[in-house]
Amino acid sequence: MRVDLGYVPLTDAAPVLAAAELDFARDEGIELVLHPEPSWATLRDRLALGYLDAAHMLAPLALATRLGLSGPQADLVAPMALNLNGNAITLSLPLWEAMAPEADDLDAVASAFGRLALARAREGRPLSIATVHPFSCHSYQLRIFAERGGIDLERTVRIVVVPPPQTVDALSRGEIDGFCVGAPWNSIAVAAGLGRIAALGCEIVPDCPEKVLAVHAGQAEALAPLVHAVTRAGIWCGDPANVGELAGLLSEKGGLGRETDLIRRSLTGHLVVDTAGTRRTDPDYLRLGADVQAPRPEHALWLARQMAASGQVSDAVQTAEAARVFYRPILHKA
């Protein structure tokens, strides 16, 4: 059985890449053909219109597609989660220096960001901060970060959408002042001398429901072997003994360039956050493995609340019911 699966080049695409490249899919009788996509909007459209059978996908975007809130409507479901966490907020070096936070903890950094963002807005030259898609946990984490800094993000900051692989280039050209993106693009910006990792997504929202395996509901049962293959691959990816091989695989096959050491950092949570070499370790920075794969009802509720808080839906209760249907833990158990 041939399965065409789309993904965006990110560290958390590891389970689907490993499934294709390390024979997990072949063991299940699947010819898994991977399609790297340039943006989440492109991936959404190609999945919704049937050019792809499955996708490594932002959980909120897959739900929004099911609800007809973003792009072509499609009856998508998520038989499994691929990871938790993995995002960070990176700010340009000039912005970080201008902020001059009193400490490196989340509240101090958010407060410094809020003060500067408000001052810039009052001067008529608001900060430009990138997210990867409106329907993303990145957008929700940015909003929560801004609220901790005492500002309304939408009214204070200019929010732009930049696909993950283009965020570092946009920062280098001065088109944006910072971004919230998944690994390894934050580390790549630091290594290029362009930015400072200001906050980790996992400290803003612990156990944030990031990516899911999204499929059409009508194909979900037929794609059970794919779920099995990606589940086994995800367990392999979560084993610390495989970090070196996985980093090499992502570098060679995942569209992340040759920065194997930077990819390894994102897999282990041993990060370098600035050009001075300041190190920070958080084992929850990106979570892969068996304990993250079952779709959780609490994550469905959280997504519904965040959509409502962001003004993307008017009825959080109705959205929560749709989210419960979207997450299909029974398929993963089977």
UniProtKB/TrEMBL annotation:
Keyword Calcium included in the entry's annotation: no
GO annotation, cellular component aspect: endomembrane system
UniProt key word Cell inner membrane: yes
Keyword set, alphabetical order: ATP-binding, Cell inner membrane, Cell membrane, Membrane, Nucleotide-binding, Transport
InterPro entries with a match to the protein in the record: NrtA/CpmA_ABC-bd_dom
CDD domains: PBP2_NrtA_CpmA_like
Localization, UniProt: Endomembrane system
Pfam families: NMT1_2
Single annotated GO MF: ATP binding
Entries under PANTHER family matching the protein: ALIPHATIC SULFONATES-BINDING PROTEIN-RELATED, BLL4572 PROTEIN
Official protein name in the record: NitT/TauT family transport system ATP-binding protein
Annotated organism of origin: Methylobacterium brachythecii
